[in-house]
């Protein structure tokens, strides 16, 4: 039996991409899931698939993690339903192209609110429950936190650098409570984030063709499942002495510095 069977896992941004794929894998392992996202229809679709795949139970909380009351509701509804929390996956995130000459403070606030503020506030809200279960947190960062400075991505990359530092600082602060905090830092992966950033189908095709060659390992793109494997490893008892780590899933891209 999987160690995640009957464990309560909160996943933000579960209506799409990496969050949805993580929810589906945990479903096969019989977890109890609390799934959140703003898009009610897509969240319900993912929840249905999770039930079919074997999730023991699935709670859907439609909410916007940039709003304080929604973050509080996500944790409260999870605790009301399941009574405990073992793992928090802070995955919800948005990317944007925001050149220095034209970016707006609204873009800055939106990106930091979701990618940074929500990570820290949800950590605070989940803390009393994770203390009881000696649970853990996995934050989804990016290799953009350290590896490359991409034109137009100064805000996004800064949010992910902040995410790495929140991961390390909270790992240190929460270690005395037996709570582990780690991050997974993927290279570019094909999900809706690419569409939402504004890349056309054609641009996205070109980018992924170009990106494949930037990964020294096998010169191919990263699969969503490979990111999920890293998340589940860090969340599992195989990582009992790992905390404050930012685990890159980048096929060696950082080694060549691009
Ligand atoms: N794909 C990549 O290349 C890549 C690389 C490195 C890191 N990452 C990180 O991986 C994480 C997941 O991204 P993804 O690639 O899976 O993208 P995605 O498919 O666009 O998924 C993003 C998820 O975040 C949710 N979300 C966004 N804003 C939200 C808000 N204000 N409140 C609640 N939920 C919100 C979205 O749900 P709703 O739209 O339903 O709200 C969606 O479920 C992000 O943190 C991203 O920065 C991605």
TrEMBL record:
<dbReference type="Pfam" id="PF13561">
    <property type="entry name" value="adh_short_C2"/>
</dbReference>
<dbReference type="InterPro" id="IPR057326">
    <property type="entry name" value="KR_dom"/>
</dbReference>
<feature type="domain" description="Ketoreductase">
    <location>
        <begin position="7"/>
        <end position="187"/>
    </location>
</feature>
<protein>
    <recommendedName>
        <fullName>Ketoreductase domain-containing protein</fullName>
    </recommendedName>
</protein>
<dbReference type="InterPro" id="IPR002347">
    <property type="entry name" value="SDR_fam"/>
</dbReference>
<dbReference type="InterPro" id="IPR036291">
    <property type="entry name" value="NAD(P)-bd_dom_sf"/>
</dbReference>
